[in-house]
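Provenance and format

Records in this collection were gathered into a single text stream. Each protein contributes a sequence line and a token line. The two records reproduced below are adjacent in the stream.
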Amino acid sequence: VYRLSEVENILQHAESPYREFFAIQYLHCRRPGEVLLLESSDVRLEDDLVWYHILKQQRGEDNREYVKLRSDEERELLKELTHGEGGKLFDVTLNEVREELRRVQQEHSLPKLKLKDFRHTRVSHLKAAGWSDVKIRDEYTKHKHLSTLQDKYMSYVPEKITEGNLWRVIPGETKGSDSSPEAKAGIADVVEEYGL
């Protein structure tokens, strides 16, 4: 699994819309394909819910599971994404998402984990922050059997993680924003020039 600082590093250096993809995948403990299937109608900000399509391959069933939104930053991130074309939140392919993850890993000397490891990482971070197995299952992974969660998803996290740490990874900057020193200086010049 990734350390919390490594997740932050990925989200800081990934390009948009991949940064938002990784953030949602990590925060909601979702499989990559579930995030790709998201449409604007699945995001119910008024109810603080995001509905995911879960394909049960063994039976060919299409089930839906929801994740409850927990922070204002999370809501803002999703609010911006609900304006995609054709109803899809992400107009990218799984291969493009993987390529972006590999690029960030290579350029920033991060562990070469797979895309699905964001889910495993988040579960391990929730556990390290003191969440019970039952709460993780009920609110995020929705596993039918608790033993599946305990056997496959829990990894030792060699760092102290608090409840507050779980949400600080959300990217502070979104599409089209620029908080570089030059941009801030330009804003300050406009404010001073017009007496704002």
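Adjacent record:
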Amino acid sequence: KEIFGESHLETAISLNNLAILSEAKGNLIIAEDLSRQAAIIGEVNRDSHKNEYLSFAINYARILFLNGKNSDSESLYYKVKNSYEQNDNFHTDQGYAQCLQGLAQLKLHSGQLEDAYELLNKSLQININLFGDSNHLICKNLIGIAHYHSLSGQFQESSILLEQVLKICKETFGEGHPEVAVALTHLGNLYFELSQ
């Protein structure tokens, strides 16, 4: 702020990074405020830095969802989604895939399973086209689809996807990485549901 000023893109980047750090530390109230500030600055600079603005807005929408502000989160996700869809190449943009993923999580949470499934598959396809089918960036999509299958009573399909996530995470990060622990937790939760 001292070097660039209150409404500079670098200030927004710093605020967004602090929001991510605050979230990681479990302080979602501070994370929400910081991500809101970043999104506001991003919107001011939207014409010259659209991708950054959309990234800040996605992070803010995600943190709103984590704080239980689903209506605000959904509105912001749709605003971002519509903004991406104004570009010719939106269907090849990882940010668009991330937006769809976040919106899908919100839909899963609210019981709109078929809408969530469609969004998750669109996001997955974009990420596979960009990064391949064994890249760790598809894991969130696969976990979301597995969650959909679980909620739909399709536990075998859920198990197959979660095993795939575990394999990708182990190959990408190694056995002792936190992402492997996340994959194991999802798989463990599924087996717990099945009394296995």
